[in-house]
C-alpha cells in the first residue's frame, strides 16, 4: 500500500469534512450545532488550502492562507458562541428559527 | 491642483456628513456650525476649480479590469453644475440653521443634506458610467431620506418612497446605457463614445439615447413622470430648494446635455426630447395655475422650467439650456427659501389662508418678488435673458408649433407667478395666522440669491467660455458675450413672448372681468387638478414595484437553513452552467 496516494486520502477527508459540515448547517436548528457545523466545514477548507499548496508547490502561501482561515474562523466561533449565549438569555431557546422574527 | 480640489468637493461634504452625525443631537449648535462650515468649504473648493477647467482626465483610480478606471473630469459642464450644487447647497444649509432650529434629529438631516451635495458633485464630475450610476442612485436615496425626513407623517413617507421608486426606474435606463457602452466599447468611460472614436451600431445607439431620455425624464420630473416632484413637497423647505435648484433635478438635464453630441443624429431623438419638454412645460404650468398650495405651485413651476431646458437641448442649444439652468437655480432657490420663510412664519402652506403677509414680512416679500419676476421672465432679471435665449433657439432649431406652445407657457408662467405673489403677500389676511419673525440666517441666505437673480446674466460671457472647445470639444459652443446676447435677445421676435407675458399679467389684473372665460375653462381646471391622468402612470409604477417587493418578501424566510439551501442551489446551477459552457 506504499504507493497509495496521500492526496487521495486528503481529498476524501476534505469532502467528508466539508460535506458533514454543510449537511449539519442545512439540517440543524440548534445554534451550538450550527457553529460546530461551520467549524467542521472550515477545517475542511483549511485542509483544501494545504493540499492545493502541496500540489502546486506554493507551500508557504498555502500555509499562510490556512493559518489566516483558522484565525478568522476562531473569531467567528467566539462571536457565534457569544451570540448564542445572548440569544439563549433573551429568547430562552437556541432554536435559530426563533431568530427569524428579526426581519419584522 | 485639480486633483485635490475634486477630492475635496466630493470628500468634504461626505466627511462633514459623518462628523455631524458623530457630533450627536445633544450638541445642536455644533451641528449647525459644522454643517455650514463643511458645505461652505466644499463650495469654495468648487469655485476654485473654475480657473482650471479642461477636458483632461484629472483623476484616474484603477479599479481592476472589470470596472475600468474610476475617472474624474473637471470640464465646463461638470464644474458649473458642481458649483451650483455646492454653493446653492450651502445657502440652503445656512437657511436651515434658522429653519430647522429646535427640530429633533437635526444630525440625520444635515448628514443627508451633505451626503446629497457630495453625491451630486460626484455625479457630474465623474466620467465613468458605473460611478455615475452609483452617484445617481445615492442622490435618489438621499432625496428619499430627506423628503420623508418627518418620518411620522405618512404623507411625507409616501412622497419619499414615490420619489425613490420613480427615479430608480429611471436609473434602470442609465444602468442599461452604461452596460451597453461597456459591451460595445470595452470601457465604462463615456469619453470613448463622446469623441466618436467608438462607433456603436445605429440601433444600439438608439436604445442608448432613449434609455437616457427615460432616465433623465424620471430624474428631472419630466413628462410622463412629472408627479413625484410635487408630492416631494412634504419635505422641509430648504430640502425643496436643494432638490429643485441645487441637486437632484439638474442631474437629468445634465445627462441630456452631456450626451447631446452623441445622440443628436439619432432619428427622432431630438424630436422626442422637444416633445417631452413642451408637454412637461405646458401641463405643469396649467397645474401650477390651479394649485392653492404655495410649495406645489413652485414645484410645478420647476417642472415647467425644466421643460424649457429639455426643450432647448432638443432644439440643439445646450448652451441656452445650461444658461437657463443657471438662472433657474438662482431664482428657484430664492423662491423656495423665501416661501420657506413665509411658511415657517405663518405656519401653513395653503395660499387661500394667507393674504397680506407682505405687510408683516416686507423683506421676504421683496426678495420673493425678485424671484417671481425672474421666473416670469420680466426684462432685466436673469430669467428673462435665459428664457428668451431658449425661445430663440427653439425658433431656429424646432418646429413653430413647439415654439408657439412655449411662448404660450411663458404667458402662463407670468400668470401663475403673479397669482401666487398676490395671494400670499397682498390683499387682506384670509385667516388669523400669527406671523413670526424671520430669522437672521434666513435673511443672510436670501440676500445673495436675490442679488444674483438680478445680475447673474451679466456673466454670460464668462459662462460661455466655460463651455468652450477647451473643455467641451464635442458640443461646439461658441464664445457668446453680452453683446451677442443683446443682439440675439433684443430682436423683433422677443416682442412676441414679451407681449404674451404682459398678456398673462393683464389676465390676472383683470381677472374679475374674465369670469366667464374662467368658467369656460373649468373642465381644464378639473383635468389639471387630476394631473391630466398621468398620476395614474406614476402611481401604477409605484404600486407595481411595491407589490412585487411584497411578493418577493416570502423568499426572505429569515431561517438559516433555507438561505443555505439557496446558496447550495446557486453553486450547483453555476457548476452546471460552467459544465455546459465548457
List the main descriptive attributes of the protein structure presented here.
heterodimer, A: 104 residues, mainly alpha, Helix Hairpins, 78% helix, B: 582 residues, two-stranded antiparallel sheet, 27 helices
Here the CATH topology of chain A equals Helix Hairpins
Just name the CATH architecture of chain A. Answer: Orthogonal Bundle
Q: Count every beta strand of chain A, where a strand is a DSSP E run of 2 or more residues.
A: 0
Report the total helices of chain A: 3
What's the alpha carbon Rg of chain A, rounded to whole Å? 17 Å
Mean pLDDT of chain A: 86
What's the mean pLDDT score of chain B?
83
Following the backbone from N to C, one meets helices and strands of chain B in this order, namely: HHEHEHHHHHHHHHHHHHHHHHHHHHHHH
| Rg of chain B computed from alpha carbons, rounded to a whole number of angstroms | 24 Å
Can you tell me the number of structural domains of chain A?
A: 1
Structural class of chain A: mainly alpha
- SSE string of chain A: HHH
Q: How many separate structural domains of chain B?
A: 2
> Given the structure, what is the number of helices of chain B?
27
Portion of residues in beta strands of chain A equals under 5%
Tell me, briefly, the overall form of chain B: globular
List the chains of the largest interface with their residue counts. Answer: A-B, 14 and 9 residues
The parts of chain B where pLDDT drops under 50 for at least 5 residues are none
Amino acid at each position: 500500500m506504499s504507493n497509495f496516494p496521500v492526496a487521495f486520502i486528503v481529498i476524501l477527508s476534505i469532502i467528508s469534512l466539508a460535506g458533514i459540515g454543510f449537511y449539519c448547517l442545512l439540517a440543524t436548528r440548534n445554534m451550538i450545532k450550527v457553529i460546530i457545523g461551520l467549524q467542521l466545514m472550515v477545517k475542511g477548507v483549511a485542509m483544501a488550502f494545504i493540499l492545493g499548496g502541496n500540489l502546486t508547490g506554493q507551500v508557504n502561501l498555502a500555509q499562510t492562507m490556512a493559518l489566516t482561515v483558522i484565525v478568522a474562523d476562531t473569531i467567528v466561533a467566539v462571536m457565534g458562541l457569544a451570540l448564542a449565549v445572548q440569544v439563549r438569555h433573551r429568547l430562552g431557546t437556541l432554536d435559530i428559527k426563533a431568530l427569524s422574527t428579526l426581519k419584522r | 491642483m485639480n486633483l485635490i480640489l475634486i477630492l475635496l468637493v466630493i470628500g468634504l461634504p461626505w466627511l462633514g456628513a459623518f462628523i455631524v452625525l458623530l457630533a450627536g443631537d445633544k450638541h445642536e449648535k455644533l451641528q449647525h456650525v459644522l454643517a455650514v462650515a463643511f458645505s461652505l468649504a466644499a463650495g469654495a473648493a468648487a469655485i476654485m476649480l473654475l480657473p482650471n477647467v479642461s477636458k483632461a482626465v484629472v483623476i484616474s483610480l484603477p479599479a481592476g479590469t472589470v470596472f475600468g478606471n474610476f475617472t474624474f473630469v473637471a470640464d465646463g459642464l461638470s464644474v458649473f453644475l458642481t458649483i451650483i450644487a455646492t454653493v446653492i447647497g450651502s445657502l440652503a444649509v445656512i437657511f436651515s440653521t434658522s429653519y430647522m432650529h429646535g427640530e429633533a434629529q437635526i444630525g440625520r438631516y444635515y448628514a443627508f443634506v451633505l451626503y446629497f451635495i457630495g453625491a451630486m458633485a460626484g455625479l457630474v464630475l465623474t466620467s465613468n458610467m458605473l460611478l455615475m450610476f452609483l452617484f445617481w442612485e445615492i442622490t435618489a436615496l438621499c432625496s428619499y431620506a430627506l423628503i420623508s425626513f418627518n418620518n411620522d407623517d405618512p404623507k411625507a413617507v409616501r412622497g419619499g418612497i414615490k420619489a425613490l421608486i420613480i427615479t430608480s426606474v429611471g436609473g434602470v435606463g442609465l444602468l442599461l446605457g452604461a452596460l451597453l457602452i461597456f459591451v460595445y466599447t470595452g470601457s465604462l468611460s463615456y469619453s470613448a463614445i463622446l469623441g466618436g472614436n467608438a462607433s456603436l451600431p445605429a440601433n444600439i445607439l438608439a436604445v442608448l439615447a432613449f434609455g437616457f431620455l427615460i432616465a433623465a425624464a424620471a430624474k428631472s420630473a419630466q413628462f410622463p413622470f412629472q408627479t413625484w416632484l410635487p408630492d416631494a413637497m412634504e419635505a422641509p423647505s430648504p430640502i425643496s430648494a436643494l432638490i429643485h435648484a441645487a441637486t437632484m433635478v439638474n442631474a437629468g438635464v445634465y445627462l441630456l446635455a452631456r450626451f447631446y453630441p452623441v445622440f443628436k443624429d439619432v432619428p427622432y431623438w431630438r424630436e422626442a426630447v422637444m416633445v417631452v419638454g413642451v408637454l412637461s412645460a405646458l401641463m405643469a404650468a396649467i397645474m401650477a395655475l390651479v394649485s392653492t398650495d404655495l410649495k406645489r405651485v413652485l414645484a410645478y413651476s420647476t417642472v415647467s422650467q425644466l421643460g424649457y431646458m429639455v426643450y432647448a437641448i432638443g432644439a440643439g442649444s445646450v448652451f441656452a439650456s445650461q444658461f437657463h439652468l443657471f438662472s433657474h437655480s438662482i431664482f428657484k432657490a430664492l423662491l423656495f427659501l423665501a416661501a420657506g420663510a413665509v411658511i415657517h412664519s405663518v405656519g401653513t402652506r395653503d395660499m387661500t389662508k394667507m393674504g397680506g403677509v407682505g405687510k408683516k414680512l416686507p423683506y421676504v416679500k421683496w426678495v420673493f418678488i425678485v424671484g417671481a419676476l425672474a421666473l416670469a421672465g420680466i426684462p432685466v432679471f436673469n430669467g428673462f435673458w435665459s428664457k428668451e435665449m431658449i425661445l430663440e433657439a427653439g425658433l431656429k432649431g424646432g418646429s413653430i408649433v413647439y415654439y408657439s406652445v412655449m411662448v404660450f407657457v411663458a404667458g402662463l408662467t407670468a400668470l401663475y407667478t403673479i397669482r401666487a405673489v398676490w395671494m400670499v403677500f397682498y390683499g387682506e389676511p384670509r385667516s388669523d395666522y400669527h406671523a413670526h419673525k424671520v430669522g437672521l440666517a434666513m435673511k443672510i441666505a436670501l440676500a445673495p440669491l436675490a442679488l444674483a437673480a438680478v445680475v447673474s446674466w451679466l456673466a454670460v460671457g464668462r459662462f460661455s467660455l466655460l463651455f468652450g472647445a477647451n473643455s467641451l470639444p464635442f458640443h461646439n459652443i461658441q464664445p457668446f458675450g453680452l453683446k451677442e446676447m443683446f443682439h440675439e435677445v433684443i430682436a423683433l421676435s422677443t416682442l412676441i413672448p414679451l407681449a404674451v407675458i404682459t398678456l398673462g399679467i393683464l389676465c390676472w389684473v383683470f381677472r374679475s372681468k374674465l369670469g366667464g372665460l374662467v368658467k369656460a375653462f373649468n373642465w381644464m381646471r378639473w383635468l389639471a387638478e387630476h394631473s391630466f391622468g398621468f398620476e395614474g402612470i406614476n402611481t401604477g409604477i409605484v404600486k407595481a414595484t411595491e407589490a412585487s417587493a411584497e411578493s418577493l418578501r416570502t423568499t426572505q424566510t429569515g431561517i438559516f437553513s433555507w438561505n443555505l439551501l439557496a446558496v447550495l442551489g446557486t453553486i450547483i446551477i453555476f457548476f452546471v452552467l460552467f459544465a455546459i459552457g465548457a
